[in-house]
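User: Design a sequence. Structure:
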């Protein structure tokens, strides 16, 4: 009888989860429909920029207009373990339909035995942008500036590239949704779903934190380094919030207030630092949404209105 009850509860839980998943997928389609446009330009797919890595390039109908010289570069999410350049197709078509050049890339993921560090991913972004510039020139487009756009893990990379790196093109502003901004293990111990702690190994122990930080940084971090604080320079080097300085590009932030994938405190960390450095930013909260920002279509409309405003102000 007890076993039967457990099976019934498990089945009910599974059914509830499936219904919630289908509902969120339907809501996400509704939200994403806001950037689905009739794009009549050209797409060049699967352009190689590194061993086994490619990007897609979206060119506007008229490449002779000044807007084409601005690149909108999308970096996909997926927890650094999944996702692909296809996730950036809607955004790329959206911007290219307005006359801009757009691109979306694949980068190395932490799958199987592969453990590319955050710095390796950033290096690949550099390689990709250099190739985007070259291929665009072959098509008569001379890129002069860029906007970096990312979701989730890709938003983290977008911020780190824009705040820490010497970019191939001047970054005029950054568009981010659901961005993790710190690799300080202590910021990941609370405010996330249990499966995030399970998959990252950040369980409150020095051993778990050291293993996770070692993987993300590509450096050998020991539990003792976590305990005595000597690991701090390691996580600060790859944390956008710690690399943000005065003179950083304007930043647009969107966060779901029920997000359990990215620690909810991260939005406060980045906004505090943006204020401290005097960096222009705007923040759109999605009060009913989690990580996918699927349940607040009015907020997504407000977010897109700010994207349009940033285009007018900074391009």
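Assistant: Done.
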């Amino acid at each position: 009888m007890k076993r039967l009850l457990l099976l019934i509860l498990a089945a009910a839980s599974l059914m509830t989860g499936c219904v919630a998943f289908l509902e969120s997928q339907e809501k996400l389609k509704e939200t994403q429909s806001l950037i689905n446009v009739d794009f009549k330009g050209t797409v060049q797919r699967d352009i190689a920029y590194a061993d086994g890595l490619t990007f897609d390039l979206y060119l506007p109908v008229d490449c002779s207009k000044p807007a084409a010289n601005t690149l909108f570069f999308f970096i996909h999410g997926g927890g650094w373990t999944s996702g692909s350049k296809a996730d950036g197709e809607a955004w790329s078509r959206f911007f290219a339909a307005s006359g801009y050049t757009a691109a979306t890339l694949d980068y190395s993921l932490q799958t199987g035995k592969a453990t590319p560090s955050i710095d390796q991913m950033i290096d690949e972004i550099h390689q990709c942008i250099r190739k985007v510039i070259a291929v665009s020139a072959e098509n008569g487009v001379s890129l002069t500036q860029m906007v970096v756009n990312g979701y989730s893990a890709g938003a983290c990379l977008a911020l780190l590239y824009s705040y820490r790196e010497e970019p191939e093109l001047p970054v005029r502003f950054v568009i981010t949704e659901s961005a993790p901004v710190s690799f300080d293990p202590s910021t990941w111990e609370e405010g996330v779903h249990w499966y995030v702690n399970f998959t990252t190994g950040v369980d409150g122990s020095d051993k778990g934190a050291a293993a996770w930080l070692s993987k993300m940084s590509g450096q050998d971090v020991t539990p003792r380094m976590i305990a005595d604080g000597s690991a701090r320079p390691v996580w600060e080097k790859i944390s956008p919030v710690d690399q943000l300085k005065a003179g950083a590009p304007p930043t647009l932030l969107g966060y779901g207030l029920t997000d359990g994938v990215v620690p909810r405190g991260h939005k406060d960390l980045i906004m505090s630092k943006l204020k401290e450095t005097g960096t222009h930013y705007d923040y759109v909260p999605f009060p009913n949404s989690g990580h996918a920002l699927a349940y607040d279509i009015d907020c997504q409309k407000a977010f897109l209105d700010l994207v349009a405003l940033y285009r007018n102000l900074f391009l």
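Confidence is low (pLDDT under 50) at residues 1-23. The two ends are 67 Å apart (CA to CA).
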